[in-house]
Amino acid sequence: MATPLVRDRISQLVAEAIEQARQEGVVQLETMPQILMERPSNREHGDFATSLPLRLARATRINPLQLAEMLVARMPNSSEVDRVEAALPGFVNFFLQNRWVQQQVEVVREAGSDYGNVEVGRQRRIMVEFVSVNPTGPVHVGHTRGAVLGSALANVLKAAGYQVTREYYVNDAGNQMDIFYRSVYARYQQALGYSVEFPANGYQGDYIQDLAKEIIDAEGTRFLGMDEEQALKEIGDVGREKMVVNIREDLDLIGVDFDNWFSERTLFENQEYDRAMNLLREKNFLSERENALWFNSSLLGDEKDNVVVRSSGEPTYFASDIAYHYNKFVARNFDHVIDIWGADHQGHVPRMKAAVEALGVNPDALTVLISQLVTLKRGAETVRASKRTGDFVTLRELAEEVGSDACRYFFLARAPSTQMEFDLELAKKESSENPVYYIQYGHARISSILSLARERGLDWTSADVSLLNDPNELNLIRTMIRLPELVEQMARNLEPHHLPHFAMELATAFHWFYENCRVVSANPEDNDMTLARLKLVESVQIVLRRTLDLMGMSAPERM
Questions:
Q1: Within a domain: residue 139?
Q2: What is the CATH number of the domain that holds 295?
C-alpha cells in the first residue's frame, strides 16, 4: 500500500491557483510550470514552501512578491492546509492543519509496516549489482561500504514500488582466477609436505593457506595423483566454491543477501559473450589493429578506444563486462541497472556507458555509483592492517568487533561519493554519543512503554488523537510523517544515506517528547491523554522500526 504525499496535494493546490489566475487573464503562461515544493529549514516559515513566484517573475513580468500574493488569494481551501502566506522575496509558505497532522497517527497505525511505501517505480524492473568481489579473497572493509550501500538502496527501491533484483557478479573467469587456482594448488601441495615453488604473482594472504587446509580436510590427497592441468581445474573449482561460500557467510554477518549470484563463466558457456561481440561487430563498433580487437568507444564520446581481446586471444575484463551488460539489458530485459563499484573503477564508467549505448540500450538506463575509500580509526589512531594477519581488515573482523548494526549505520551515514572515517571506538559505545545506541534505545524505550501499558490493561485503540496539541507531540508527528517523502527522494536520487540522519532526527524528537510529556499517568483524570499518547508512541514505533528495517538494522525490544 502506497502512502499518499501531502507535498503532492499542496502542489496540486498551487497548480489550481495558477490555472485560476490564467483563466482570469491575470497571469500569461502558455504551459503549466513545474511546481517544486520544499521544506523550509525554519519551521516558522511553514511546513512547505515554493519559490515558484521567483521563477515565474521574468515570464509573467510580475513582481515576485505580488505574484505570490496573487496565488495566495486564489489558493483553494483544503483539509490539509491551515493557512498560506506570501513571503519576501517571493515565496509561498504553507502551514499544515494541526487536525490533519494529528490524524496522521491513525494513518501510520493503519499502514503498519507498509508505512513509507510510495509508487515511484510503478513495478519497473531494476537490478542493483553490488560487492562483486573477485572470489580470490575475502571481503574487506572497503568492499563492506559498497555492500551496505547496495543493500539499503535495494530496500529503498523496493519500498518505492520497483521490482528489485539484488545481484552479485562472481568474476570466476580470466587471468586472476588462474593465478588464484595456482596459489591454492601450491599451498595445498606445501601443506602436504611437498616442496613446490609458489607463483611469483600468487595470492599471499594467510587465507590461501587456510583454504588449502580446508580442501585437505574435505578432499584429502586426491589431487596429488593428477596431472597439473587437471589438478588445477578440479582444485580450482573446489577452492572457488569454498571462497564464494566464505564470501556469502561474511556478507550474511551484516545482513547483506542477494537474489542471484551470477557467474561470469556462464557468459562464455552460454555464448552470450559471442552474441554481444557479434552485435558490436555488426554495428561497426569493433576493429582489429595492433594484433588486438578494439571497441571503438571514441565514436560514442569516450576519450579513447579500448581493447576487448588481447593479442593472445584472451578477452579483457572490459569484454566480459560488455557481455554481462548485454545479459542484463538484452537477455534479461531490465529497465534500469545500478552498478556499485569501488573507487578504483571510476575511470571505467565512461567506456561502460559507451558500451551499453553501442548495444542499443539508452545509456541513461545504466547508473554507476562509486563507493569511495574508508579509513578505519580507533579513536585518534588509524588502523592500517588486521591484527590477525598483518594484512587488510576483513568484513568478518569488523563485524565481530562492532556488530552488524554499527557496520550498517556508519557506512550508510555518509554519501558514497565522499571518503569516510569509521571510528571503531565510537561504534562500540553504549551511550548517547553513539547514534546507533541512541536510535535503538529509542525503539527499546517505546517497547518498554507499550509493554507497561499493556500490563496495566490499557487499550488505546479508540484513543482521541485530537488531544495531541502539545508542541512536542505535534513536532514528533511532523517528523515521523516525513518518511514517505524521504523514500521517494532517495529512490529518485539513489541516496539512501539520508536514512541514518532521519532515524536520528526521529529518535531525538521522540526522546524530547518523552522528557517533556508524561505518557502513562497514574492520575485517572489524565486517562484520555494517556491513551492518546500511547497511540502516538505506537505510531512512532512503527515508523522508527520501518526506518531501521530499510537500513537493514535490528529494532531491539530491550537494551
A1: yes
A2: 3.40.50.620
Q: In what order do the strands lie in the sheet with 306-309?
A: 286-289, 292-295, 306-309
pLDDT digit string, tens, across residues 170-229: 999 988 999 999 999 999 999 999 999 999 999 988 899 999 999 999 999 999 989 999
For residue 5, give the nearest of 99, 96, 112 by alpha carbon. 96
Final residue before a domain boundary, out of 197, 219, 252:
252
What is the model's pLDDT at position 379? 85
> Is there a domain that residue 405 lies in?
no
Same domain flag for 248 and 343: no
d(CA 340, CA 113): 28
pLDDT of 103 reads 98
Give the chain's residues under pLDDT 70: 1, 385-391
Residue 387 confidence (pLDDT): 52
Q: Are 85 and 95 in contact (CB under 8 A)?
A: yes
- Cα distances (Å, whole numbers) of residue 257 to 69, 124, 155, 254: 53, 21, 11, 9
Q: Which amino acid is at 546?
A: R
Q: Is 554 exposed, middle or buried (0-12, 13-18, 19+ CB in 10 A)?
A: middle
Q: Is 219 helix (H, G, I), strand (E, B) or coil?
A: helix
- Kindly report the number of other CB atoms within 10 A of residue 107's CB atom: 15
- Predicted pLDDT at 302: 87
Are 281 and 163 within one domain? yes
User: Can you give the pLDDT at residue 386?
Assistant: 58
Question: Is residue 390 a part of any domain in this protein?
Answer: no
Residue ranges of alpha helices (H) inside 283-403 are 317-326, 349-358, 395-402
Angle (deg, nearest 10), helices 98-111 and 527-551: 60
- The domain in which residue 467 lies consists of 432-551
| Structural contact between residues 210 and 138, judged by C-beta atoms closer than 8 angstroms | no
Number of domains the chain contains: 4
Domain contains 404: no
Q: For position 2, what pLDDT does the model report? A: 77
pLDDT in tens, 367-385: 999 999 999 999 888 887 6
Looking at the fold, whether 229 and 166 belong to one and the same domain comes out as no
Residue with cell 493503519: 110
CB atoms within 10 A of CB 529: 19
Alpha-carbon separation of residue 331 from 41, 273, 281, 303, 413 (angstroms): 47, 12, 18, 29, 36
CA distance 319 to 16: 53
What are the residues whose beta carbons fall under 8 Å from the beta carbon of 438, sequence distance 6 or more? 432, 504, 507, 508, 511
Distances, alpha carbon 26 to alpha carbons 19, 77, 255, in Å: 10, 20, 58
Would the CA dihedral through 514, 520, 526, 532 be positive or negative?
positive
Cα–Cα distance measured from residue 153 to residue 485, given in angstroms and rounded to the nearest whole number: 15
- Domain at 472, CATH number: 1.10.730.10
Which cell is 389 given? 594477519
